[in-house]
Amino acid sequence: MRGLLVDISPLRESPAFARLWIGTSVAQIGAQVTIVAVGLHVYALTHSTLAVSMVAVWALGPMILAGLFGGALADRYDRRLVALVTAIIAWICIGALTTIAFLDVETLWLYYALAAGNAAAATIMGAARGAILPKLLPNHLLPAAAALGGITMGLAVTVGPAVAGITVAAWGYPWTYLLDAVLFTAAFVGIFGLPQLRPDVAVTGFGLSSVADSLRFLRRAPNIRATFVFDLVAMIFGTPRVVYPAAGAVLLGGGSVTVGALTASFAVGALLSGLLSGPLGQVRRQGRAVTLAILAFGASTALFGVVLLVTAITHGTEPGRGPIVPAIVLGGIALAGAGASDNVSAVFRTTILQAAAPDEVRGRMQGLFSVVVAGGPRVGDLVAGLIATALALWAPALVGGLVIMAIMLAFLRVYRGFQQYDAVHPTP
């Protein structure tokens, strides 16, 4: 069992990493509370799955700019300071969401804009934090640190959505947003505990020239580039979360509580795979592991689509129905499998990026990584919303999962160099 359980050596070796991990873990729970609450709030105001997907569309542009230019900030200035300033901006956006919700403001673009501002600030903060970790830990502990990060996200997406569903149902949207504002303060504790973390070689340029330099490096880094491409495929075609509000209202039943349960199921899988991540540190062919993990992710996503399809055929689509417990359980199991495989992929993609990228471009690579990780699902939200609107609620998961599987099988042959990536001798 000791060999199966997550390696906590990074927490023992680096007190600064331990403080950052704890603060991030608490703050991420609040972030997931707001993500679910905004989706539910927008659906309550509009009764439109497409309107829910537009939350992601509004955030996409600011997030891309934040990833591109925020990474350059992390390569030029003290990374601790960059993380602190962007944390303050994100907290202000959360406070503004709380305020307009208490004032019962129903102007939709305000919620879109504040969610976008919060996402952009979180993208820069994530880029800085990703560039910080190799400064706090040796390379051989980076897989364990990535697994601990997976536990953080798994815990957040398990607890946060469940809390959001219950809090929205019991006390409403304003108090749900306020809860995030309180929890997010833990992020400051983790950041304040860091030492000064200036890059080894600070970039002299800034703006478009710095971004262009990072893109030129990416063209010469096929393994790092592959991690971005593979994750984009998974997230664009395997993100059916925008159908959760409608599924809870008219298909599976149970309303906001079902939405929280479905979202939490994905995170339970991620959390369990993180807790049992001990063997991942021994994997050398990490590129092949990424490919197989995303293949499993596609299969699990398609299975969730099958559950929705069968439920629609056997029970119809009557609004306001009670929960169909067997369907919710089966859908939760499929989403747990998707969460577990996605977390395994994330552990290896994160490790490849942090170990293979030189320090002078690490912030910008982390910025691009943040764009992919956070922006990919938002494109996926739009794709899922369009497919659900054009076809049916079950279509985004079933069709998307099958597409992912087909592409990954092709990538096993096309990306041969990535399949041979060796963790002992990391190359970009």
From TrEMBL:
**Main location per the UniProt record:** membrane
Q: Which InterPro entries match?
A: MFS_dom, MFS_trans_sf, TM_effector
Pfam families attached to this UniProt entry: MFS_3 (PF05977)
What is the protein named? MFS transporter
Q: Which UniProt keywords apply?
A: Cell membrane, Membrane, Transmembrane, Transmembrane helix, Transport
Q: How is it placed in the membrane, per its record?
A: Multi-pass membrane protein
- Residues of the Major facilitator superfamily (MFS) profile domain: 179-428
